[in-house]
Design goal:
This protein is mainly alpha-helical. Helix content is 71%, strand content 0%. It has one domain. It is built from 7 helices and no strands. Helix 1 packs antiparallel against helix 6, helix 1 crosses helix 7 and helix 2 packs across helix 3. The radius of gyration is 16 Å and the shape is elongated.
């Protein structure tokens, strides 16, 4: 379970920070993608895009904080709980997009150019599943702050690698939904 705990933290840090930095760097594009989804009223699209970007950056930074600070590590279950809820909310959002894909060119769920396909929901589901796994590990008392050893290093590398692969997955699907 210690492996799962550190894998989850590596995944959250890498996945959320990469996504948040990508959304912040391509702010105009991301805001327009959220507007094009027509899920929220046009006036709420900009605040939603800001909220998504800030939450990604804060949660990703918190995952790093859990790794390096005993005080922050005590709050790991809160981080995992919040990220589980975020993953479920994100999956619900993408599910709504998939039910009415007309005119939607991208879900905005990947740092890479990705059309809206069924694979677009995978980053959301992965966020929820990895966070839930981390929550289970933390609830069972596994994990502390980072100690420099193979025992914690390997799962962190796996978590970062998994985040990269999940981020690439939607971009690897070549066709859009009709």
């Amino acid at each position: 379970m210690t492996f799962v705990y550190y894998l989850a933290l590596g995944y959250l840090a890498a996945g959320l920070l990469a996504s948040g930095i990508h959304h912040a760097a391509g702010w105009t594009s991301f805001r327009e993608i959220v507007r094009s989804h027509r899920i929220v009223p046009v006036g709420l699209a900009t605040p939603l895009a800001i909220l998504i970007t800030v939450v990604e950056l804060v949660a990703g930074s918190a995952a790093l904080g859990v790794l390096f600070s005993d005080k922050v590590a005590a709050r790991a279950p809160v981080l995992f709980s919040v990220c589980t809820v975020l993953g479920i909310a994100f999956a619900s959002y993408v599910r709504r997009l998939l039910r009415n894909p007309t005119g939607i060119t991208s879900c905005g769920c990947s740092s890479f150019a990705a059309p809206l396909t069924i694979a677009s929901i995978i980053p959301a589901l992965a966020l929820a599943l990895v966070s839930l796994s981390g929550l289970a590990a933390a609830a069972l008392g596994f994990g502390n702050t980072l100690n420099q050893s193979f025992v914690t290093g390997l799962p962190l590398v796996w978590g970062v690698t998994l985040a990269l692969l999940v981020n690439l997955l939607p971009a690897s699907m070549p066709r859009q939904l009709a």
